[in-house]
Amino acid sequence: MSMNFFKHLHTVGKHRRLVRKLCFKCGLIRQGLTHDLSKYSFAEFWSGVKYYQGYRSPQAKEREELGYSAAWLHHKGRNKHHFEYWTDFADGDKIYVEMPPKYFVEMVCDRIAASKTYLKESYTDASPLEYFLTKTDRGGMNPETAKKLEYYLTMLKDNGENFTFKALKKYAKQKNTPHG
Question: What is the pLDDT of residues 69-108, one digit of tens each?
Fold first, then answer.
């Protein structure tokens, strides 16, 4: 367990550094600096230590063992760069709100950084798109957000990081909605 503490701490730190670097490329300085700070909270960090594996999110293992992830429930409710944050309920229906540009761009940076963190040497610019297409619950995402995410991840696969981050920086500068 003590080794998992340091391994998880290293993984979280590495992921946050990668997201910070990518957010900075998009002009999102504040978001780069504050990204995923909730991962250091007791609710998220100790779960991460307990379920640490090194090759995927500890939340996946926690979900397998408990049927849900308490750490994920905590995390998604505090971090606007997760599309799940933008789900609401009205009259018994789920409402999927389109993500404001600055949080959308942070989500793209987060997905790329997570792929790099967990896939290590086997990462390619196609990896985040592959994960999105095979593992993301797109039915739980606003359709416009899903379309844009697939568009930018395809752009990454086809044109590489430099091209994609120039486009994302431009998109991030668009006016955010009042809820953003």
Answer: 999 999 999 999 999 999 999 999 999 999 999 999 999 9
Q: Which residue has the tokens 């431009």?
A: 170
Residues 25 and 169: beta-carbon distance below 8 Å: yes
Pairing of strands 93-96, 87-90: antiparallel
Long-range contacts formed by 129-137: CB under 8 A, 24+ apart: 129/153, 129/154, 129/156, 129/157
Per-residue model confidence as pLDDT tens digits over 108-151: 999 999 999 999 999 999 999 999 999 988 889 999 999 999 99
Q: CA-CA-CA-CA torsion for 149, 152, 158, 163, nearest 10 degrees? A: -160
Contact 38, 78 (CB under 8 A): yes
Q: Say how far apart CA 44 and CA 55 lie, in whole Å.
A: 18
What are the residues whose beta carbons fall under 8 Å from the beta carbon of 180, sequence distance 6 or more? 80, 99, 100, 101, 102, 103
> How many angstroms separate the CA atoms of 136 and 131, rounded?
7
**Which residues have a Cβ under 8 Å from the Cβ of 166 and sit 6 or more positions away?**
none
pTM: 0.93
Kindly report the backbone phi and psi dihedral angles of residue 92, in degrees, each rounded to the nearest multiple of 5, phi listed first: 80, 0
Cβ contact 64:58 at 8 Å: no
Residue 40 is encoded by which pair of tokens?
A: 């250091």
